[in-house]
């Protein structure tokens, strides 16, 4: 895992031109726990659409160029808490996921704060789309 020095982390936080008002805790938690793989600017790993040498896909962006906003809140929460493999196994999807589980590392409230931060960076259309998806999810679809 990549190690980031304290000053580099601070610089990243200061240099990030993203919304700071919504869930400020989520922003710092994102930088600490997600940015090494998903990118300091939520840009994802380079070449994220192609599997790496190990056959596993690199981390996708969480900004509007990725597909995070295609998923409802419950799915995103579950994916972060239990990790990609557990969720995909439950869905019967045959996929080798490199997305770790954060259930032992982050509290539910911290995961929610991170997801709120990620959502706050999306343009309004993506936010609306994702809110509708969350609503469908609530109704069991
Ligand atoms: C060690 C690298 C790594 C770290 C750290 C990491 N991820 Fe991931 N993540 C991945 C990879 C690789 C994928 C793509 C594989 C997959 O979808 O299962 C992924 C996929 C995802 C997805 C599903 C795809 C999408 O965009 O909807 C979500 C949600 C997600 N990560 C959230 C997070 C959050 C939130 C954090 C920080 C708490 C985080 N990840 C930290 C590697 C990582």
H/E element order = HHHHHHH
For the record, what CATH class applies?
Mainly Alpha
The proportion of residues forming helix, as a percent range, comes to: 40-55%
Question: In total, how many domains does the architecture comprise?
Answer: 1
Radius of gyration, rounded?
15 Å
Might you state the CATH topology name?
A: Cytochrome Bc1 Complex, Chain D, domain 2
Q: Any overview of this molecule?
A:
Helix 2 packs across helix 6, helix 4 packs across helix 5 and helix 4 packs across helix 6. This protein has one domain: Cytochrome Bc1 Complex, Chain D, domain 2 (Orthogonal Bundle), CATH 1.10.760.10. The chain is built from seven helices and no strands. Helices cover 50% and strands 0% of the residues. The protein starts with 5 loop residues before the first helix and ends with a helix. The longest helix has 15 residues. The chain is an all-alpha fold and 141 residues long. The structure holds heme C. Heme C (HEC) binds next to helix 3 and helix 4.
Primary descriptors:
0% strand; mainly alpha; 141 residues; Cytochrome Bc1 Complex, Chain D, domain 2
């Amino acid at each position: 895992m990549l190690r980031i020095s304290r000053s580099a982390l601070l610089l990243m936080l200061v240099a990030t031109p993203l919304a700071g008002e919504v869930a400020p805790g989520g922003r710092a938690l994102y930088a600490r726990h997600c940015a090494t793989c998903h990118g300091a600017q939520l840009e994802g790993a380079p070449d994220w659409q192609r599997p790496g040498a190990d056959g596993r896909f690199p981390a996708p962006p969480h900004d509007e160029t990725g597909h995070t906003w295609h998923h409802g809140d419950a799915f995103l929460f579950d994916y972060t808490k239990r990790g990609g493999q557990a969720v995909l196994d439950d869905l019967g999807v045959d996929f080798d996921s490199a997305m770790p589980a954060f259930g032992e590392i982050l509290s539910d409230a911290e995961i929610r704060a991170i997801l709120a931060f990620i959502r706050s960076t999306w343009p309004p259309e993506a936010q609306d789309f994702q809110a509708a998806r969350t609503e469908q999810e609530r109704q069991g679809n």
